[in-house]
Write a structure and sequence with these properties.
heterodimer, A: alpha/beta, six-stranded mixed beta sheet, globular, B: two-stranded antiparallel ribbon, two-stranded antiparallel ribbon, 33 helices, binds adenosine-5'-diphosphate, binds magnesium ion
Chain lengths: 290, 829
Amino acid sequence: MTLVFDEVSKSYGKTKALTGFSAALDPGIYALLGPNGSGKSTLMNILTDNLKADSGHILYDGEDVLKMGVRFREKLGFMPQYPGMYGNFSAEKFLWYMATLKGMKKEEAQKQIPEILNAVELSDVASHRISSFSGGMKQRLALAQAVLGDPKVLILDEPTAGLDPKQRIAIRNYISRIAFDKIVLIATHVVSDVEYIAKEVIMLKKGVIVDRAPTPQLLCKIEGQVWSLPAKEEEVAEYQRTFAVTNILKGENGISLRILSEKKPAENATLAAPTLEDYYLHVFGEQTGV
Amino acid sequence: MKLFGYEFRKLIGIRYFVILLVLLMIASGILCYFRVKDEGVGKFGANAADEVNAFLKEYADKPEELKEQVQFLSMKAGEKATLRYEAYRKEMLDKGMDEESIPWYFDALKKHPDWAYTYNYSETVPDTVLAEIGPKVLENKEKYNSGMASILRQAKSNAQRLEEDEGMDMGDYLYYYQAQVYLRYAKVLENASVGDRYVSGWTQFFEYRYGDFFLFGALILLCCMVFVPEKQCGMLPILRTARKGRIQVACAKVSLLLLSSAVLALVFAAIHFFVIFCACGYSSFSDSVQNIPSLLLFPKAWTMGQYLAYSVLLKVLAAVAFSAAAGFLSALTYSPVLSYLGGAAIFGGSFGMSFMDVGQHPFYHCLNFYSMENVAPIAERLHMVQIFNSGMEYILFAPLLCLGCTVLFALPTVALVSGVRMSGRTKAAERQSVFKRLKKSLLTFENSLRTKMAKKSKEKRKIYRVGLVRWENRKQFLWNVPVLLLTAILFGVQIFVSFRAADNGTPSLEYRVYTHFLLSEARGPYSQQAEKYDNLINIYTKGDEGRQILSEDYRDGRIDRETYERYTEYLRTIRNNLGTYDFRTAREHYDLLKSMNESGLDPWFIDYLSWSRLLTGKISYPLFACILVVAILTFTVEYTGKSKAENFANILRCTKLGRKKTFLAKCLSILCICFVLALLFWGVEYIFMLRSGNFPDIDAPLCSLPVFSQASGGITIRQYLIFSLAARVLSAMLTGLFVTAVSALTRNIFSGLTVSVAVTMIPTLLYMAGMNGAGYISFGSWFGVNEMIQFSMKNDLFGWDFGVYALYTGIFAAVTVLLLAAARKKFIK
Ligand SMILES: Nc1ncnc2c1ncn2[C@@H]1O[C@H](COP(=O)(O)OP(=O)(O)O)[C@@H](O)[C@H]1O
Ligand SMILES: [Mg+2]
């Protein structure tokens, strides 16, 4: 089971949303990491055939997904970035409807729906109208419908947007639990969502892949460039101007800065273990204005 | 001011809105042109009016001579036309045409009206036209003079009586009124000049009413566009937190609404003015307004120009007031469908009021948005509103009323839109918050109820696994509370309308006599009953002679004793109760049947009135509205997201059955819904009709009914009944599909509804407005089936009764299928 992107490109007028995107995915979790407007949603919409690519193909086990049509879609679970659902349905009925749409068997749906509702912590409100849900609840319901029917290809566009930390972790764990036999593609700009669960990270910048590797490999690239530095309050501004400061920590014994730099920024700086967030900032630093 | 500019740009930025407005204007102009093109002498050339006036002037003080002259002219014209026709006939015969196929005199004359020109008097205007106009203008003058005189006389005598008998003076309203009438009319008589000149264009302009359908359609559209889109795209909360986002934006929006309404009213008036100018041309602006027949007794000595200014002003004010009211509803509900229906309801109410009897309900008749600026009927005799002990004329009162109405609705609208929470919060804002709180508590209550119910049935958890079609049904109808409510309301309206229609149709006394005395004896096929029927009419109408005939018949053994006694009894009843009763209806019916029998048919004597009522029902607007609303939701429910990315369609499209199957399911769903709705709504009509009369002879041939006298024999009433019911259901289903296709193509409730209404209703409107050709494309007649079939029988296309009907159905179905195919392609691509 492989999903291959072959030079997929898309532009809106003059803005190039996606340029020559190529990648091959096996089962496992892939993180599509990039700031807003880097083309993540565009890619996902092309993959789900909600958008036509200007050029390029997407192949599933060697076959063009557009040609496969229904055969591909029955393997698909999609959670869009801004899910819209029928306000007058209850959560449970909505999932039943999705089960019908996905052509699931009755017994299967009967088994899965309560389970999934439980996993996304919506069991208590399963019979409530969707229009009475908060943003986070809708988000979780959207995830539930994507997961429903055990799709082989799961596409999640910013699945944790608007969730509280506890739910974030719960969702993250849930995704990693069900992901073993699926190709899961998660688009996000929240590094912590995917840092530990992603098999591979695809960095996307203005529609172009800038990096693609498993997390440890990425971290290797900035090994020895992350520094921890105690500083006085009045020095912080100066450091921010000259170095890429990724974090400012106020501890009991003064301020500690986390700095990305090839050279040692100051005498009293000590090397720190890099994280994916450091790498993200390393890549998108000038763009996001750190 | 800046904010106003932005609001204006927002409005203009809605492309389909602008396009629809332009289309409405064009349609209005075209309709107006067709209505007036044959009126007036403008079509005979620029100075035709002058020639008419010269003619009138010559005979101004000699009405007798004019009459003679007119007769002379008509005769001459006739002679000339005959000569020309003969020449034409000869020419045709020479060309080898056979006698049969040459058009008859009158048909030929219709094609060549210029044959009747004799050029005796005028260079350009045909004498026949002169002969027509002359007496009319004179008659108008006479009417004016005598009307004026009688009003003055009466006002004077009334005032005198009040003064002498009751001791009233100017302080009393009644006396004041009579005095005012006298003064005003005396002034008019002094200043106005009527009947000296031919007035062209003005009558057409002031009496043309169909433009209002387009104007108010545009206004309803406008009202929907100002508030609702903001809510739909989710800008409302953002807007409200901005510093100037409340009161200022609300003021900008409301003033934009009012101003645009005024501009629209002006534009439509200008279009009509211009179109009528092109078609008829206007006579002088300074003619007295009393020259217009419906303004003959207008109580002011105004000129056409003044009256034009006033009536346009009033139309503008009425439009503004209407928009204020409809806009208020829109701001209250923030729902596209309800905004539409609210506006339509206000307009419908106004339109209905304009049908009221002027004498009994002058204010309802005139003080409504539809016919407000048509001052004619109520201005007569100075209708005044009594305010304390003095009066205010309608002419002044109407604009004030509009302004009041505007303020009354505009202020709460501003409050609603800005959601004011200030110290001096207005009533409306309070009501809204109550409304909101109620909604919230209802929702909480519902949720807790649902939880409880769900807990109870935990073990045997409900299974919702049903087919896609039923899911679609639920989405657009069964689980859609607002739609269900609306359907219930519309169904209520249908019941009311059907009840009234069945009630109103009580046959006249004459007809009851007919059924009672004639039909009870001689019902059945003409060939068998004609003699008896004819005989009975003879007996009944001839009184004593009739009795003579009866006894002879009895003596000669043509009727038995029992029948003899019964007829004698009838005869006595008729003579005692009705005096001389001529059985005209019965005779006419007999003649009709006779002529049909001569052409080879065998119609029956039946209770044709009751049957006709049952078989000539027209379009059911409640059903149409219901189908429109439900069907427009078929696809738009998938596109209700605040932006494209938020539509459910995104999820739907990447499921296994989310494209082709769902498309099919949606079509089937709307077909089912329309089928049920059609049965329900039409069923109500038939049930009420059936209850109100009795209907034997269901196997009589359809042509027995005078309205279907063009039907060619073969089909019976029973067959027709089944056929028309089936056709009505089919129409409803096809319409549902059509609107569904539009909904899939537009993906937007506003534009979808407007396109559907425009495509279906504009031809209907044209037809109603008197463009007979539009009957062929009148959706209304087709949707109600019977009207279109009568039309079809009349035209006898391909020698087949149902030719036109079948053609229309076929074309409509083909268009629907094409649209559906396009929609399908768009949906599943
Ligand atoms: N419908 C659209 N019309 C024009 N430009 C668009 C449209 N959708 C996205 N874009 C542009 O494409 C680029 C990528 O957008 P998107 O895929 O939504 O990014 P992401 O999901 O990574 O935030 C952005 O620059 C955006 O401005
Ligand atoms: Mg995105």
